[in-house]
Amino acid sequence: MIHIENAHKTYTHHAEEVTALDRVTLKIEAGEFVSIVGPSGSGKSTLLLLMGGMLSPTSGTVSIDNTDIYDLPPNERSRFRGQHIGFLFQRFHLIPYLTAMENVMVPFLLQGDGGEAASQRATQLLSRVQLEQRFDHKPGELSVGQQQRVALARMLANDPPVILADEPTGNLDPETGGAIIDFLLELNKTGKTIVMVTHTPEAARMTSRSIRLTNGAFVN
Amino acid sequence: MKISHIVWKELFERKNQLFTSFLAIILGITVIVAIRNIMNYSEKAVAKELDALGANILILPKSATVQDYYSADMQDEVFPEEYVTRLTTSDLQGLDNLSPKLSFSVPIQNKQWILTGILPKQEFQGKAAWQGVGIFSKPENCGTVPDASQNSKPDPGALSRKRVIETLLLDEILVGADTAAALNLKDGGSVAMMGTPFTIAGILPSTGTIDDSRIFAHLHTVQDMAGKGPVLNAIEVVGCCNAISGGLVGKINRLLPEAKVLTITQVVDTQIKTNRLMARLSMLFLGIIVIVGGASIANYMYANVFERRQEIAIMMAMGATSGFVLRLFLIKALVIGIVGGVAGYFIGTGMAVYLGPKIAAIPVLPMPSLLLWALGISIVLNVGASVFPALRATKLDPSTVLQEA
After folding, report:
1. What is the value of pTM for the model shown?
2. Which stretches of chain A sit within 8 Å of chain B by CB?
3. ipTM for the complex?
4. Which of A176, B49, B276, B364 is most buried, with most CB under 10 Å away?
5. Torsion angle of the four alpha carbons B249, B252, B256, B259, in this order, in degrees rounded to the nearest 10
6. Which residues on chain B are in Cβ contact (under 8 Å) with A89?
7. What are phi and psi of A76, to 5 degrees?
8. Cβ contacts (< 8 Å) between A78 and chain B: which residues?
C-alpha cells in the first residue's frame, strides 16, 4: 500500500545541512494501523508529510498504491492526495470562519462536488462523530474534543483509503484522546490503512505495528 | 457549497481589514467619478454657451484684430471671396453655417453708417460648387443651432442668431435697431445710399451689439458699391463646438494660411479652464488611486495570504490545487472591486450633484455610464493588485506551514 524506498531528507538550517530522514525504507500493507514513535525532532512528522505527498524527499521514492507520488506534477499530486489520503493533525487546522458543517464540506468542494449529496454526506459524517447539535457552530464555539471530531469528519469526507494522523490526541485530555483512538481503531477495522505519529505509549500499544524513529532512522 | 461561499464568509471574518481596504478603493473611485461627472456637465455647458454665441469662429484678414471686427472698423483689410469656395469645397467637418461679410462706411443723412454685405443662403444654393458639401446640414451630435433651411419664410431676425438669412434681393436691406431708430426707418420703406435706392426688407431686433448700428445689404451689391471687386473682410462661421475642440480652427488655418482664424472663447474661458483643471485632476486622481489604492490592496492581500497560510496549507493537504487557491483570492479581489466600484460610483455621483453647482456653477445630474467606468477601474485595480499575493499563496509550502507552532 505505502512503500518508502531509501528516502532521504535533508534541510539547510543556518547554512548547515540537517538530516531529517536518513535513508529510510518502509512498507505498510493495506489495512495496517502503524504507529510511529520517537523523541521530538526524530523525524516522525517529516516521515508522515513525506508519505502524504506534502514534502518531497531529497532522494528516494514514496509510492502509494504503486503510484510514485513525487513523480506526479504538483496539481496532480494535490488531486491524488485529496482522493487517497486523509490528514488528522494535532492542532486540527479547522477553518475558523466556517461552521462545522462547512468545514466538512470543504474536501467535497475541492473535489468539485459541493452540492446536495455532499451536504447529506457531511451531515452523516458529523452525526457519526456525535456532533448533530453542532452543525452550525464555528470552531471557536466548540470544545477541543469537538473540534478534533470535526477534523475527523472532515478527514473522512472523501473516504480516503489512507489516514495519516500526526499526534491526533496531543491536545486532548486522556478521555477524549482515548475516544479518538477508539474511533481510529474502528476505522481501521473497516479496512483503512492508518499511520499515526504519537508520543503516547498507550496509543502506540493499540496499533498493529509500532516503529521507533531516532535521529531520522528506524531503530528496533 | 461553492468557492464564493468561502470567499464571502472570509470577507466578514476580518471586518476591520476589509473596511480599510474598501475605504482606499471607495475614496479613489468616489473622487474620480465626482470629477468626471462634473467635468462632463461642464463640457456640456461650454458647448451650450458656444452654441448660444451663434458664430463662434471668425476668419479675418491677417493683419486685422478681433477688436477691428467688433468695432466693424476694418474697411481697408480684405481677402478674396474665393476663401468661401475653399471652405465649402473642402472636406472639413463641423461647419454649421458660413456668413461672408464685407463692411464699409456709407454716408446717410450726413452721418456715416456701417454698410455690411452679407450673402443670403439662396446664393450658396445657386452656386454648383457650394452645393452638397454639408455647409447647411448639421453634423450629427452637433450644437444646438437650428438649421436655417428649416425656415421656409424669410426671417430677418434670424440673422442675429444664425448668422444667415434665407433671401435678400440685390436692392433690399436689413437695418439694425439703432440705425433704424436714428434714421427713422420703417419696415417696407426705402432709403438711398451712394445714390442707389434700397427697399427696407426688415428692421433687425436689438441685440446690444455693433449689429444694431449696421445696415445689411446683399454682399454683391456692397462689393459693387465698395469698388474693390469680389472681396470680403470677414467670414463668420458657426462651427460645431465638438469640432472646434477637435481642432477645427487649426484645420481652417491650414486651409486658409493667408487669413487669421479666431475662436470666440472668451465668454466661456472660465468654463474651459475649469474643464481643463478637472481633466488634469481626474488624471491626477487616477494616478493616485492606481498607486495608493493598488498598493493598499496589494498590501492587504499580502497580509491576508500570510494570515491565512495555515488555512491554505490545510486546503492544499486536502487536495486544493494552485488554481483553486488562486481563485480563492482573485474572487475576493473581484468582490471588493465590484462593491468598491458601485459604492464609489454612488458616493461620487452624490458629491458631484451636490458640489457641481458650487464648484463649476453648473447643474450636475447622475451619469449611469460612469458606473461601468467606475466598476472597470475598481475591478482591474483590485484584481491586478491581488495577482502577485494570490500567486504567492499558491506557492506556499504546506509542510512548513503545518509544522509551524
Report:
1. 0.68
2. 45, 49, 52, 54-55, 74-75, 78-79, 81-83, 87, 89, 91, 93, 95-98, 102, 105-111, 114, 118-119, 154, 158
3. 0.89
4. B364
5. -30
6. 314, 402
7. -65, -40
8. 316, 319-322
